[in-house]
Design goal:
Helix content: 25-40%
Number of helices: 7
Strand order of the largest sheet: 4-5-6-9-8-7
Order of helices and strands: HHHEEEHEHEEHEHEEE
Shape: elongated
Largest sheet: 6 strands, antiparallel
Radius of gyration: 21 Å
Number of strands: 10
Distance between the termini: 52 Å
Structural class: alpha+beta
Length: 237
């Protein structure tokens, strides 16, 4: 079965970007040009470009045209997404390198963050998320076993903690803290950084309807990651 025309246009664009024929920030053909090239309506071409803009592959500039987006990953402060999905939507190859997966006694800061007793057992994982085999983000996560009893039995090379936790303890609330940090030697090794490049750190706590599920630290090189969001405000009448 042939792919829909809009999907063929999307794949054509992604192939051009991955092969470096269209570089970061370069202008791409217009909707009309794609419509003519693929013998489709302008609406079909627009759908392809819109979906790639929403995925962060392209950006639009009113009056100037459509451009290849920055190759930094983008994550929204207002929406918690699965990093594997973000990578795949950009046409990248996602993979994961597990560093640590263990049960441990909760020291005071972790116990407070998870709302459990000090020295109680919690689950701890450290994973490196990669895009096209290049380290993109280190995820260190502490999990309350009460809400995710099978956490340590998961194969995180096949699924992500986000995917598992969304099924085991559906998310109802999240709080974030964002700051720039200087990575230590261990973090530089995990992220394959060869200088003291500033990193972006997101500290996140998530809740299900029954309590605090996880406490997570996400660290990404500043050159490869950015945060963004789209807010809509109601006007006062």
């Amino acid at each position: 079965m042939l792919e829909p025309k809009f999907a063929q246009i999307k794949q054509h664009i992604i192939s051009k970007i991955k092969s470096a024929q269209w570089e970061e920030h370069s202008k791409i053909p217009s909707e009309n040009e794609f419509a003519e090239q693929f013998s489709v309506s302008r609406m079909t071409a627009r759908r392809a470009l819109t979906e790639l803009c929403e995925a962060g592959v392209l950006t639009r500039n009113q009056g100037l045209g459509t451009f290849v987006a920055s190759f930094k990953s983008q994550s929204s402060l207002l929406e918690i997404r699965n990093i594997a999905d973000e990578v795949k939507e950009r046409g990248g190859q996602y993979s994961c390198l597990p560093i640590t997966l263990e049960s441990m006694s909760a020291i005071a800061p972790i116990a407070i963050a998870l709302g459990v007793e000090i020295d109680s057992q919690v689950y701890h994982s450290v994973l490196v998320h990669l895009e096209n085999e290049i380290p993109l983000q280190v995820e260190e996560r502490f999990v309350n076993p009460e809400f995710a009893p099978d956490y340590l039995q998961q194969d995180f090379e096949l699924t992500t903690p986000h995917e598992y936790l969304c099924k085991a303890a559906p998310l109802t609330e999240a709080k974030h803290t964002v700051e720039a940090i200087s990575p230590n030697t261990e973090m530089c090794n995990w992220l394959a950084l060869y200088n003291e490049e500033p990193c972006l750190q997101v500290i996140r706590r998530t809740w299900s309807s029954n309590g605090i599920v996880s406490f997570t630290r996400l660290v990404s090189p500043g050159s490869k990651y950015r945060l963004g969001g789209h807010l809509t405000f109601k006007r006062n009448k």
